[in-house]
Amino acid sequence: MSTTRSTGAPSPTVARRRGGLAALALLPFAFLVLFFLLIPAVSLLVGSFHPSKASGLTLENFGYLRGDDKSLQPFVNSFILSFSSMVTGGVLGLLIAQALVSSRSPRLEQLTITFSSVAANFAGVPLAFAYIATIGVSGLITRFLVGFGLDIYSAGFTLYSLAGLTLVYTYFQLPLMVLLMLPALKAVRREWGEASDNLGATRWRYIRSVVIPVLTPSLIASLLLLFANSFGAYATAYALTTGFVSLVPINISNVIAGNVFFDPGLGDALAVGLAVVMTVCVGGQAILQRRASRWLNR
Amino acid sequence: MRRRNNTAWAVAVIVFAFLYFTVPLVATAAFALSDGRHFTFQPLFDALARDDFQSAMELSIGIAILTTILSIVIVAPTSYLIVLRFRRLRTLVDFVTILPFVIPPIILTLGLRQVYGVESPLGINLVGSPILLIGGYFILSLPFTYRAVDNAMRAVDVVTLTEASESLGAGGVRTFRALILPGTMLGIISAALLSFTTIMGEFTLASLLGYATFPVFLNNVYASEARQATALVIVSFLITWAGVLALAVVGRRAGGSGIAVRRAA
User: Fold this and answer.
1) For B85, which DSSP code?
2) pLDDT value of position A53
3) How near does any CA of chain B get to the CA of A66, in Å?
């Protein structure tokens, strides 16, 4: 492809001048990325190693790495919430995706994909309020259950806890799992099952030796994405609890809002910790996805 | 025998999925559109008639349109030139454009606030300026806009198109306008829709940097007028639906499945 390129170029000088002009056209992109992404990111990274009342470099902001309770708590809570909503969304999403594949109905599949896209994108403030109307103190389901003699709030449940947040996050985690796993599940060919039947393998042997190895990379990649998706989420948790739950994004927002109990260095250190978690998840996901694509793209 | 069991199991799961999706919406409508005993659209009309709702909506739509135009004007030529001429920059640009996945909105907000806040180390105070929000939203939507445009650029093989066009004597700008833009139009429309819907629902940046956009208004009004706010949840839901359907239509025409995956706000 590149060998034919030179034939169209009028002369080397013109080509070089055009190359220079073309490089100029990249400048606006570079400018925006530099000023609105890279400089802010570097500022956080540098800030995280700055002591609050002196100059020089320090690790004092990274209290959570030393197991300091106050700054470790948001990470523990964020981890619990992300893990639990990854499990609920992951398991239910996988079941639904498999049910769709088994149904072998393209119309049902298309319908579910549309619904899932809406639900996966329906997050943040509106989702929080929808859930308050559903299963808040006087929500529709709450009152419905009271009608059956089951008062979930006196039984200890509250929407404004990690358990409640898990329930709400599942609303966007589950459909995301459906969208992520559907292509992978469809890549498991019916013929493979027939072939293994013909070779005398049991159903379980087929699942263990064929289905699981083929699906594992996609499955782990999808779960990592779900985990990252809730670890960085702020709007839903904030709208639901007005900030009264200790999660990493909520703690960072307290620093931004100028809460005097949070110093800027800690905010930067929390942001760096959050970015590391995201990098591990997104990076791991990218690597696994590349392995998974061996089966997907045929 | 086994097949019938399979079907029953699948039907049960699909019914669960349907209920799971619709119950919160029914509950939202039930709470918002009743005055305790009767069905009424009044809370919705009251909310829509508010001055602060209208100004919030205007701000959201204005910022979304401006940012979307900026994104397309910058991302389309950049992606074209990377595919065509600067292939060595490819890895770098790919890395930069997925960086916002690793740096979620809350981190970007903290960084922007530090660099362009009142105590800006660069001496650039952008607090309250639309530039800050537009710049931030350009970055937030970059993974979606760039991917959509870049996929389209590669699908139509812009390298061959450009060679053909230039060997017929057309200049670079003319080639881009007359051939590349029309050829990648569906990808560009997808990118624009992704950018627009992302921005219309964005809460984190706007709220913490002090802009009264629609989601911020929604959150603020809940404290005093829960019913009106919940009625506006329906509006927000319809916006999401419209965005997803529009993307599905464009995606289907482009030959894809129309799957739209955006990260939660």
Assistant:
1) T
2) 65
3) 22
Output DSSP code: residue B180: I
Of A99, A125, A156, nearest to B5 by C-alpha is: A99
DSSP element (H, E) containing B77: helix B51-84
Residues 45-74 of B with CB under 8 A from A: 74
- Comparing alpha-carbon positions, the chain A residue that sits nearest to B220 is A239
Both structure tokens of B189: 């429309």
Q: Determine the Cα–Cα distance for residues B136 and B213; give it in Å rounded to an integer.
A: 14
Model ipTM value: 0.88
Residue among B21, B233, B236 minimizing CB distance to A115: B21
* B82-137 confidence digits (pLDDT tens): 988 888 899 999 999 999 989 999 999 999 998 998 877 888 888 889 999 999 99
Residue among B11, B16, B28 minimizing CB distance to A133 = B28
Q: Which candidate from B166, B207, B261 shows the least CB-CB separation from A179?
A: B261
Residue B134 CB neighbour total at 10 angstroms = 22
CA dihedral B138, B141, B144, B146 (to 10 degrees): 10
* Cα A112 from Cα B258, distance rounded (Å): 12
Retrieve residue A213's tokens: 């190895």
Quote the CA–CA distance of A143 and B159 in Å, as a whole number.
63
CB pairs under 8 A between A and B: 272
Instruction: Tell me the pLDDT band of A221, cut-offs 50, 70 and 90.
Output: very high
Say whether B101 and A282 touch across the interface (CB within 8 A).
yes
Supply the angle between the helices B226-253 and A106-121 in degrees, to the nearest 10. Answer: 130
What are the residues facing B34 on neighbouring strands?
B39
Q: CB–CB of A103 and B21 under 8 A?
A: no
